[in-house]
From TrEMBL:
This is Alternative ribosome rescue aminoacyl-tRNA hydrolase ArfB. Its EC number is 3.1.1.29. It comes from the Bacteria. GO terms for molecular function: peptidyl-tRNA hydrolase activity.
Length: 137
């Protein structure tokens, strides 16, 4: 069971975990041990609350397919159990990131004093640059 928040959790049957062979440098055990994890989670058929589903389906992330399936591949570690934990953590982080509400931006304009300071700074910089010219006697 994966705990998303105090009220929301995912059952084990909702998350499909498959062991796959990890890429990278090998050794004696290369192409024999399936240490990487391939995680698949179907948003539409899950038991998540509807607000979670809506936000996840509207969330722009390369892990979410057009069909509403989250696919995460984890092969950072050398053991399957650590990769499984990493994949589940990344799934939880993705779900929580989709639930963050962005603060709406209100357009503001600079004050008269701020505009005056900006122009004064520009004039001062321009004067400094003008003094760098050649000195004629």
């Amino acid at each position: 069971m994966l705990e998303i928040s105090n009220a929301v959790s995912l059952a084990d049957w909702e998350i499909e975990l498959t062991g796959i062979r990890a890429t990278g440098k090998g050794g004696q055990r290369v192409n024999k041990v399936e240490t990487a994890i391939h995680l698949r989670f179907d948003i539409k058929s899950s038991t998540l609350p509807s607000i979670y589903k809506e936000r996840l389906l509207g969330f722009k992330d390369h892990h979410i397919t057009a069909e509403g399936i989250i696919i995460i591949k984890s092969n950072s570690f050398r053991t399957q159990s650590l990769n499984k934990d990493d994949a589940l953590k990344r799934l939880k982080d993705l779900i929580l990131a989709a639930m963050v509400v962005q603060k709406t931006r209100r357009a503001t304009k600079p004050s008269r004093n701020a505009k005056k300071k900006r122009v004064d700074e520009k004039k001062k910089r321009g004067n400094n640059k003008a003094l760098r010219g050649k000195v004629s006697f």
